[in-house]
Specification:
- The protein is mostly helical and 142 residues long.
- The chain has one domain (2-139): Cytochrome c-like domain (Cytochrome Bc1 Complex, Chain D, domain 2, Orthogonal Bundle), CATH 1.10.760.
- 49% of the residues lie in helices and 0% in strands.
- Helix 3 crosses helix 7 and helix 6 (101-110) packs across helix 7 (126-139).
Length: 142
């Protein structure tokens, strides 16, 4: 009986979180576009997704990506819930299908005005940014 109650509560919480993430899709944005030469870039073939995961989870400074974008990439990290607009929901294919690898690189490196996305270009090397881009795209963007 106790196990059934716990499983029921866990299911409700999971459904609620999933429903919220789904309602946060697509995400309208007015993020500045990367210059066309950068937007067209894609260096993910040489990038290392395992290193990108470590940076996403713990290593990016001043904040690890997951603090805002969430453990599951849905934009619902501990800090992300308080940001307006909410951080990018990488699990939203309707939004992410039009975001190039180069655009992601540009935003991680330079930040995004009028959002909580800070620039990481002074703390991460370009190859580390490509590692993060590869991890995100390989994990959530399909």
């Amino acid at each position: 009986m106790k196990r059934t109650i716990i499983l029921t509560i866990a299911s409700i919480l999971l459904f609620t979180a999933t429903a919220w993430a789904a309602s946060n899709c697509p995400q309208p944005r007015k993020t500045k576009s990367a210059p066309s030469n950068i937007a067209a870039m894609d260096h993910t073939a040489k990038a290392d997704a395992a290193k990108g995961k470590k940076l996403y989870e713990k290593g990016a400074k001043p904040l690890a990506c997951k603090m805002c974008h969430g453990e599951s990439g849905d934009g619902m990290g501990k800090l992300g819930k308080a940001l307006k607009p909410n951080p990018r929901n990488f699990t939203c294919s309707a939004t992410m299908k039009d975001v190039s690898a180069g655009q992601m690189f540009y935003i991680i490196k330079n930040g995004s005005a009028s959002t909580g996305m800070v620039a990481h270009g002074k703390t991460l090397k370009d190859n580390e940014i490509w590692d993060v881009v590869k991890y995100i795209r390989q994990t959530w963007v399909h």
